[in-house]
Design a protein that fits this description.
Length: 226
């Protein structure tokens, strides 16, 4: 992937179609840049932060980089700044690569299990040339309720080494107990609410009848005196 960028001066005012950026790393000085917003957003959707990009600076120098970070507009949620990291192709990098869940779990389709995804990425170590955009995780291996896929079960492309706790669960198939319990609790709450309303109505009715009876007695006594 090639991205055309230009150098910019400190404090330079950019037009609405242009976005600021910076490139750093591999022992080189930071370099401030500017680039086309639409072009970068399109490329970022395709490569994310785990693929190599060739920055073509001022139509001259070509630098191999990765997207290190982006900043979003807090209101409109579009990209307003990008950080690029210069890559040394001889040195391994540690990076989070997104997981792409594919297939349909038989535990869900045939046994009504709920599929719980505990992580959406995996941390790996590799040479930059071995980087991939994402790693597939096939849910078809979840056959029975209670089955799980751990990080050690994720099939990595050649050259990638998983880091962290490999026994940690990535995704699992569990019984839908929580939903059933919520339904039971909701039913009990509704019944209690109805009983409470009936009790209040009963008390109000009783009080009304007592007041009515008291008034009738009083009126009867007054008529007798006349």
């Amino acid at each position: 992937m090639i991205l055309n960028v230009k150098t910019r001066t400190q404090g330079e005012k950019l037009d609405p179609k242009t976005m600021p950026a910076v490139v750093y790393g591999s022992g080189s000085d930071n370099q401030i840049l500017k680039l086309d917003k639409v072009e970068f957003e399109k490329l970022y959707r395709e490569v994310g932060e785990s693929s190599l990009i060739e920055l073509k600076i001022d139509d001259k120098d070509s630098v191999t980089v990765m997207v290190k970070d982006i900043q979003l507009d807090p209101v409109k949620d579009f990209i307003i700044h990008a950080d690029f990291y210069r890559v040394d192709m001889t040195q391994k990098v540690q990076i989070e690569i997104p997981l792409n869940f594919i297939g349909v779990a038989r535990a869900e389709k045939e046994r009504g299990a709920i599929i719980i995804k505990n992580s959406d990425s995996i941390e790996v170590s590799c040479l930059p040339k071995d980087l991939v955009k994402e790693i597939d995780v096939d849910l078809v291996v979840l056959v029975e309720v209670g089955d799980s896929i751990h990080f050690k079960d994720v099939k990595l492309p050649v050259g990638l080494e998983a880091l962290g706790d490999l026994n940690e669960v990535v995704v699992s198939a569990i019984e839908p107990r929580e939903e059933e319990e919520e339904e039971v609790v909701a039913t009990e709450v509704d019944e209690e609410a109805v009983e409470g309303e009936e009790a209040v109505e009963g008390e109000e009715k009783k009080e009304g009848e007592e007041k009515k009876e008291g008034g009738e007695k009083k009126e009867g006594g007054e008529k007798k005196e006349k």
